[in-house]
Amino acid sequence: MELLLDRKGHEIKITEKVMQKAAENEDCGLPIMKLLMSRKIDEIKITSKIMESAAGNWSDGAEMIRYLFEQKGDKIWITPRVLQAALRNPDGAEIVQLLYPRSYLIQKIMRRSRYQRQGRDARKWDKWIKRLYGTALQAASGGKTKTM
User: Fold this and answer.
1) pTM for this one?
2) DSSP line for the chain
3) Could you give the count of Cα atoms lying within 13 Å of 101 in the half-sphere of its Cβ?
4) Which phi-psi region, left, alpha or beta, contains residue 103 (left: φ > 0; alpha: ψ -120 to 50)?
5) Alpha-carbon distance 67 to 29, whole Å?
6) What is the rounded (10 degree) CA torsion for 64, 68, 70, 75?
7) FRET partner for 16 with CA separation of 20 to 30 A, picked from 23, 76, 77, 106?
8) Where are the domains of the chain?
C-alpha cells in the first residue's frame, strides 16, 4: 500500500469506505489507517461510520479511537451508534471512557443541563448524566466496573 501511495498517491482519493474498511481490519487496520492519514490527512473526513467501525474493532479499537482523536479530534462527532459499537466490543469499557467526553448525545444533554436548567433541577440533570455514563461503562465492562 505504501508503494502504491508513493507512486500514485496524487491520483488516489481516500474515501469514507476505504477508511471504514481500514477501521474494520483487525489484523493491520491501525497501521493502514496511520499510513492513509499521514499521506492524505487534509482530504480525510472522519465520519460516524468510520468511528463506529473503529469502536467495533476488537483488536485495535481503543488505539484507533485514540489515534483518530489525536489527529482530528475537534472534527469528530460521536453518535449513539458509535457508543453501541463500543458496548459490543470486549474492550468496550476503555473505548466508552474515550468516547464519553465527546459523545454528541451526552454533549447535547449537558448543554441543556447547563444553559436551560438552574438550581436543583440542574443538579438532577448532572446526576442523570453521570448515571447514564456509569451504566454505559458498566455494560461495556461486563458489569464489573463501578463509577462515580
Assistant:
1) 0.71
2) -HHHHHHHGGG----HHHHHHHHH-TTTHHHHHHHHHHHHTTT----HHHHHHHHT-TTTHHHHHHHHHHHHGGG--B-HHHHHHHHHSTTHHHHHHHHGGGBHHHHHHHHHHHHH--HHHHHHHHHHHHHHHHHHHHHHTTT-----
3) 8
4) beta
5) 12
6) -160
7) 106
8) 2-140
pLDDT tens for each residue of 2-38 = 776 767 667 778 899 999 999 999 999 999 999 999 8
Residue pLDDT, tens place only, 117-138: 555 555 665 666 666 666 666 6
C-alpha cell of 23?
Answer: 477501521
Hey, which residues does 103 pair with through a beta bridge?
78
Gap between the Cα atoms of 8 and 98, Å rounded: 35
Q: Is the dihedral of CA 17, 21, 22, 23 positive or negative?
A: positive
Which residues lie below 8 Å from residue 116, measured CB to CB, with a gap of 6+?
none
